[in-house]
Amino acid sequence: MATPVQQPPQSGSGKRKGKAHYVPAKRARRCDGGGPRQLEPGLQGILITCNMNERRCVEEAYSLLNEYGEDMYGPEKFTDKDQQPSGSEGEDDVEAALKKEVGDIKASTEMRLRRFQSVESGANNVVFIRTLGIEPEKLVHHILQDMYKTKKKKTRVILRMLPISGTCKAFLEDMKKYAETFLEPWFKAPNKGTFQIVYKSRNNSHLNREEVIKELAGIVGSLNTENKVDLTNPQYTVVVEIIKAVCCLSVVKDYLLFRKYNLQEVVKSAKDPSQLNSKQTAQAGNGAKLESGDKSDQNDSAEGTNNPQVVPENSEEPEQTKPISETEVVNEGGAKPELGSQVTEGSESSENGLS
């Protein structure tokens, strides 16, 4: 007779562990050697806004960034352990063995650090893609420039794609200290240019928009007095994105030309065929009205009417007009006989009433 299988003793509470018990361990496992998993100071990357579908947005971002990243920087290379030097010559040397072990650890870490890695942004409908070994502003400008020229739509969910060249703590003093060195490559003498500042804040209430813009504009002016503000066609646009306690900064070109770095709008040409068709139909309608007006004028002149305003169309009180003169004019011109008949009938009825 088979013995019954003994079940392991359950905990005293007798309840199953919930999801909250396993989530912290899963997050800790993800962070082991794989870089940060949330937006924090000291990162570079690309800030992407979407429309209620963040998972699809991340997929489109990976596809688009890998396509153009390989075009600019070549295919992504991963370090393979088999390609590491064997170190057979110095197997007995302890120092060489330690160096080899350190190299293997670094190689394994680099394998987990991808060129593009999504991290938690801290805001809804916002995705942050951390970049490694590339220049975000050049890559995003290359993407928008190609889409602007080809007018080929490549995304459905992604709205805006903003490069982030640096991040710092979202406190005014920290931002000022960081911006003094961050803005030097573009605005410090002998470099100069016209600029504007674009500010956006999410999940943050302790910063004042006007104060931040005023301080950053003062820093740009202090770097070179020839830097001027231009809101119509600036050479540079300083992008300031605040998410919780992190400030994201970047300096981009062609901000207005590329429709504020909106991937859905940049593929729309200024001379859209639908707009042209609507304009052409409107022009055709106006032309038809003008031609009909010209023909009516020609007909009136051919009929021999000397007065162009024979019968007033907007007359609100037709009873006050003189019936005899109207009948005479209509009979002479031959236009609108119905009105003439109505007038004559009205005159006959009035005569009958008088009689």
UniProtKB/TrEMBL annotation:
The keyword RNA-binding applies. Residues 1-13, 272-284, 299-309, 341-355 have a biased composition (Polar residues). Residues 146-253 form the THUMP domain. Keywords: RNA-binding. CDD domains: THUMP_THUMPD1_like. Pfam families: THUMP. GO terms for molecular function: RNA binding. Coiled coil: none annotated. Residues 14-29 have a biased composition (Basic residues). GO terms for biological process: tRNA modification. Residues 1-38, 73-94, 269-355 are annotated as: Disordered. SUPFAM superfamilies: THUMP domain-like. Interacts with NAT10. Binds tRNA. Functions as a tRNA-binding adapter to mediate NAT10-dependent tRNA acetylation modifying cytidine to N4-acetylcytidine (ac4C). Belongs to the THUMPD1 family. This is THUMP domain-containing protein 1. The lineage of its organism: Eukaryota, Metazoa, Chordata, Craniata, Vertebrata.
